[in-house]
Amino acid sequence: MTGTNQTTQTARTTGAARTARTTGAARTADAAGATGATDATDATDAAGAGGGPRTISTLLVANRGEIACRIFRTCRALGIATVAVYSDADADALHVREADTAVRLPGAAPSDTYLRGDLVVRAALAAGADAVHPGYGFLSENAAFARSVRDAGLVWVGPPAEAVELMASKTRAKELMAAAGVPLLAPVDPEKAGAADLPLLLKAAAGGGGRGMRIVRELADLSGELTAASAEAAAAFGDGEVFAEPYVERGRHVEVQIMADGHGAVWALGTRDCSLQRRHQKVVEEAPAPGLGDALRDRLHEAAVTAARAVGYRGAGTVEFLLGADGRPYFLEMNTRLQVEHPVTEAVFGLDLVALQLRVAEGEPLPAPAPPEPRGHAVEARLYAEDPARDWQPQTGPLLTLEVPDEPGLRLDTGYTGGDTIGVHYDPMLAKVVAHAPTRNEAVRLLARALERARIHGPVTNRDLLVRSLRHPDFRAARLDTGFYDRHLAALTAPPDEADLRLAALAAALADAAARQDGPGPTRFGAWRNISSRPQVKRYRAEPGGTEHEAAYRTGRTGPVPETGERVVAVRPGHVTLEADSLTRHFHLTVHRDTVYVDTATGSYTFTALPRFTDPTDRTEPGSLLAPMPGTVVRVAEGLGAGASVEAGQPLIWLEAMKMEHRILAPASGTLIALHAAPGLQVEVGALLAVVTEPTDAATAPAAAETTDLESADPAEENA
Fold it and tell me: Are 330 and 182 in contact (CB under 8 A)?
């Protein structure tokens, strides 16, 4: 798989004749100037909104990235023409390239583009679409948008706006579920909370994805955390309502996929476990949830169906539960949309959930009274451009290569290909890799190996974390809970073995030498000098860890001879084979400017080639705080200015990038002698933000930062 959407699923037709999709290059229009709408009443009557079955011929996907590409894949299989919308930042994005028609939404920020329901509806009408699919994130759970689509005479591929509205507020949803007899955690009044109520979980009522969420373990912290959670919720969702409930230690996050039609059928499509989370967002998901007894599984299915019927649900949705250590389930929320992790359910049940969404939207019943029997086990890992060892900081820049092995049982859903650029405006999820096999152990093994063998060149990713997570003893034994990364992150992000790094650096040096030979590179050693020589030394810095490595070798009569004793079996500019400790290892090398990517069978390494001599002018003043990523300065600490005293760990500057807020912290106690940041300033990675001095004259630091998600309305930032 080389960065394209692939799946073993077969889309099911809906029985209605389909219109062949438009051929040729994607047509584009500008939503800001499109005027194809007719009178709303006439359009509604012509479209038959609220009437009988409709055949969808052209579908607009009100989203971007991998979910837009995934929906287009099903549309192609069903003969439905596709329309993409795109921001200026996404003008050359994969989802735009894959659509038949594309409509520009002027601007780059989500608030100006993908969150503008009026522009999206106008784009659908201008492009001649007769239906809109919201994907997930952005406007997918916006009842007003659903109504505006319906009022424009278009088919809404989602649940009724009334159901979306009923579940939009977690507090109202809990009241509704309590009345329907669905088990839930009793809310706690923060003003009356006592020590016996701790720990508490504060949550935003109007959204999810970890925004507005805080764990409170000390009563003294409650007031401040309530204020912070409310402010964060208001910034992310426009609603500062926050509620409190008991925090369940070592709870499991288990959910039930449902699918309902307009003819009374509601399917419960098994369970999924989504307990491995970072910042309250899912990282690894699997189906079925392991270790659940028949009675508990049946109880969850029954509760999910009850929840769906209570709101008159139609289409795809998910009912989420928290399982306590004692196995008792509690209702968390109902997501009135498709989930990021829906592919694991598709794999186990052999279904195309998007095809079923389209079928239901056209007014047809589900194909059978009950769903098919599940088969095997599926595991999904979310591949992010982020650095888990540095507070999960998102990464940006060119994605040079994205290749995942194309093997039976593997599926890749992505919105990127090699050559694309990861920008600062959207969530950093690159792809979802899914493995399906007869047993859980086989699926986990297949997924871990596929990720390990993947070639991913460009920004730092969480690939190594995923591989180590899948192979961790607790995960292999299905000892799962939402505190997994709190306990194991340090071990899972430990730097690679020094011996492995040294060998990879040696391979990089030998390949570089081969590339510098006159004429075509030797297949073995033919172009090497047949004389003894002084050692050749090449220096590399391992990324992102920063450790430096020297590779030294001589060019003897049989070829290069490493000073560290390895035997060189073969060397070419892009491939080196070394024998060390009686083990022969292959290294595949890709060079991009000063960066060298070294891929092996058991891991991948990234190096920066260092100059032989350090430039004495290439220095940064000690105590300098450098921007860890491109972004916008949104504020600085009150009263901060040159001469101000600061304390170690004090937040000084707030950057916003990739839908997240990053607090730049003082590296040590001292005096601020320079401040270059101001609200509204756009900065590039490495930009000098401030300088702090202390008595010991601290070293330069790429600014220490803490990351907080700002908004859930992004395709990969779903409620966790």
Answer: no
Return the closest-CA partner of residue 705 out of 648, 658, 662.
Answer: 662
Give the residue from 116, 110, 98 showing the smallest Cα distance to 31: 116
Q: How far is Cα of residue 97 from the mean position of the Cα atoms in its chain?
A: 21
pLDDT in tens, 145-173: 999 999 999 999 999 999 999 887 777 78
The H-assigned helical ranges of 342-471 are 342-349, 353-361, 440-453, 463-471
Instruction: Specify which of 537-541, 553-557, 638-642 reaches the highest per-range mean pLDDT.
Output: 537-541
Contacting residues for 543 by C-beta, under 8 A, at least 6 apart = 460, 595, 606, 607, 608
Nearest to 355 by CA among 17, 21, 76: 76
Looking from the CA of 57 toward its CB, the CA atoms found within 13 Å total 9
Q: Report CA 22 to chain centroid distance, whole Å.
A: 31
C-alpha distances (whole Å) from 220 to each of 198, 225, 226, 243 are 11, 10, 11, 17
Please tell me the distance from the alpha carbon of residue 23 to that of residue 342, in angstroms, as a whole number: 29
668 burial via Cβ count (<10 Å: 0-12, 13-18, 19+) = buried
76: buried, middle or exposed (CB in 10 Å: 19+, 13-18, 0-12)?
Answer: middle
Which tokens in the block code for residue 573? 């500019």
Q: Do residues 430 and 416 lie in contact, with contact meaning Cβ atoms separated by under 8 Å?
A: yes
Q: Are residues 31 and 86 in contact, defined by beta-carbon separation less than 8 angstroms?
A: no
Compute CA distances 591 → 16, 511, 611, whole Å.
52, 10, 15
Q: Say how far apart CA 563 and CA 575 lie, in whole Å.
A: 20
Which 3-state string (H, E, C) describes 15-30? Answer: CCCCCCCCCCCCEEEE
Whether the ω angle into residue 288 lies within 30 degrees of 0, i.e. cis, is: yes
pLDDT tens per residue, range 167-214: 877 777 888 778 877 778 877 888 888 888 888 888 877 655 566 778
Mean pLDDT score, 710-718: 44
Sign of CA dihedral 204, 208, 211, 217: positive
Taking CA atoms, 612 is separated from 181, 240, 535, 561, in Å, by 71, 55, 14, 20
Q: How many CA atoms lie within 13 A of 562 on its CB side?
A: 26
Tokens at 33, concatenated: 């100037």
Burial 455-492 (b: 16+ CB within 10 A, else e): bbbbbbbbbbbbbbbbebeebeebebbbebbeebbeeb
Please check whether residue 343 is in contact with residue 432, taking contact to mean a CB–CB distance below 8 angstroms. Answer: yes
**Residue 609 · residue 686 · CB < 8 Å:** no
pLDDT digits (tens, 9 = 90+) for 651-685: 899 887 765 667 888 888 889 888 888 888 888 77
Q: Which of 63, 170, 82, 76 is nearest to 719 (CA)?
A: 170
For CA atoms 109, 110, 113, 117, give the dihedral sign: negative
